[in-house]
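Issue: ligand-bound run for methylmalonyl-coenzyme A - logging full I/O for the record.

Environment: standard queue, default settings, no custom constraints.

Inputs:
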Amino acid sequence: MGNPLYDRLFGIHAGEDTPFLHLPDGQIITHAVFLDMAARIANALTGFELEPGDRVAVQVEKSPEALALYAACAQTGLIFLPLNTAYKAGELSCFIENSGAALVVCDAASEAELTPIAEAQNARLETLNADGSGTLMRRALGMLPAFEPVKRAEEDLAAFLYTSGTTGRSKGAMLTQENLLSNAETLVQEWRFTKEDVLLHALPIFHTHGLFVATNIILASGGSMIFLPKFDLDDILRLMPQATSMMGVPTFYTRLLGDEHFTGDLARHMRLFISGSAPLLAETHERFEARTGHRILERYGMTETNMNTSNPYDGERRAGTVGFPLPGVELKVTDPDTAETLPQGEIGMIEVRGPNVFEGYWQMPEKTAAELRADGFFITGDLGRVDEDGYVHIVGRGKDLIISGGFNIYPKEIELVLDDQPGVLESAVIGVPHPDFGETVLGLLVAEPGRTHDLEAILASVQNELARFKHPRKLIVLEELPRNTMGKVQKNALRERFRDLFVKN
Ligand code: MCA
Ligand code: AMP
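Outputs:
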């Protein structure tokens, strides 16, 4: 028994002097240099007296060193817990506390704020900055560039990713080595990634898309990545000629189409454009094809399951669908009330089962039991149907979720903050169409009798507590919220009423 995750993604490149990361300034980090960096970090982590299975909570900017920390966690059997760089201290404290993290790694700029949170957990705190400086690398650079990977099995946990829930309470999705490996290796085959590929990588590396899909595929295939700190249109246009493929959320594609410098000539040599994390409008798919001749390959996944379905590489990539279940993934559409499988073509709850499906939510057996059936099927919360040709269509969500620019936002979390504001009787937060982010957050408020709202002050409070991408882009005061006969707020009616607020239909 070795360490499958390390061996099959990283160890296979030992001693290879081939490019792994192309940085925007032209610097190249080879596989060998990257693995040396990871081994030094692994030695540093071992020196912190961490045990395999301990959680390492990481909120750092995207950098080669941040990626090497992921590799070092695989090598030492530590559970990697990446966190969105936009999260505020209050949000972070939930994840650090719930996971019982033994080590917190953050940017030096957040050190003061995070120190008391780490101390409350008896967690050690190290810093890692965007330029690779900080206490972690200072220590790592004094270590040997060799480390014997700790023995692990495929069923051992490799990563936690936190997702908020419809109740506003965050849940740590536990992912095993097998979850990550099986999905990455399947996708290499399905999407034909090889050593020749150069992936334009502008996604963050704290989510499934940028880390477990994009990065793991490149590691498993032996290709390389143009590793950009974030999505910047000028960088993308400048560097696309050196790439063979790109992965992005729909906002990447609408922003490209919105720029006249993005021409067919610039994209013609590319092998593949992939989209996911949020619905790609059929209109975007069609405009992209008209401009470049490429049909974007759309796929569907979740934090809890990695990738479930994909449009075909060779067959027809059908706009408005997410393609077929991946090899090894079973998908069925069920009646949300009875859990009975529905006939093909009918709309219901999408459920999936396979080696990609997570173990459950960390220390939340009731939540796990509510979403993960005893027979292994995961209830996705997405409503869909399978058409007569077998293509899966996602037609809506059974869960109260907004996806803005590929980031998930659970309205309940924002409603809890709004409801706490002086003069607010109640609130409802909904997602409405937005030209750049696909959907954006709209907050609707009802005042306590005889009170008026100070909307500026309310927004300022939200801004203090929640990450920027969760902030309502607008607050509107209503006399009352529409309710059904059971007293439940009718969000569909609100979504319908405000659907043209940011876009003209
Ligand atoms: C940034 N801002 C946002 C978002 N991102 N607001 C709403 N929604 C967002 N997604 C805010 C910033 O705080 C800032 O506010 C302003 O918008 C500009 O910030 P900037 O840093 O310049 O970001 P941006 O260029 O606007 O970013 C948009 C983006 C980025 C490039 C689309 O959000 C992004 O990279 N999204 C990818 C998310 C992702 O990787 N999702 C995968 C999840 P102000 O203007 O006030 O300063 S994994 C997943 O979903 C599953 C598993 C799957 O299937 O993949
Ligand atoms: P997350 O929990 O951040 O991983 O987000 C997963 C959710 O994103 C899914 O449950 C879907 O609702 C949505 N999603 C991901 N990919 C797609 C897609 N291609 N089309 C529509 N929705 C998607």
